[in-house]
Amino acid sequence: MRKITSFCGLLLLSLPALGPAQETAPAALPRTASPDAALVYFLAPANGATVTSPVTVRFGLRGMGVAPAGVTVPNTGHHHLLIDVTDLPPDNLPIPNDATHKHFGAGQTETELTLEPGKHTLQLVLGDAAHVPHQPPVRSEKITITVVAK
Ligand SMILES: [Cu+2]
Q1: pLDDT for the residue 26
Q2: Contact indicator for 47, 150 with CB cutoff of 8 Å
Q3: Staple partner for 62: which of 24, 30, 39, 141, CB 3.0–4.6 Å?
Q4: pTM of this prediction?
């Protein structure tokens, strides 16, 4: 997280130095290409499932490999889990790292999630070595689950 913050700081600091010709360009980071066949999805829970907390969430990935953050092997990335996120974060910046945007930078493919009772949405986004979504983005469908008390 500290790495992301300092990188963003660097990015912001470098903006005033851009020439007039670049002023209209978005403050974007280089994007890493994803293959056409790439697909990220939930192995569990199922969309619409009723579950108890903690919820075991398993991440599926087809057409690409999982690599830890910082690794720049082509056609790899690491998982990010968006919890109750309405607006997707920008595709051209590192995915935020907070309570609703969880990074699995060690290459994890599952997690135990503690959620309050009620409806929740979950969505997966693959990020590259620098936590930036691929081009085109590799995102799962957004699933809805209902958490009930034990
Ligand atoms: Cu990340």
Answers
A1: 52
A2: no
A3: 39
A4: 0.82
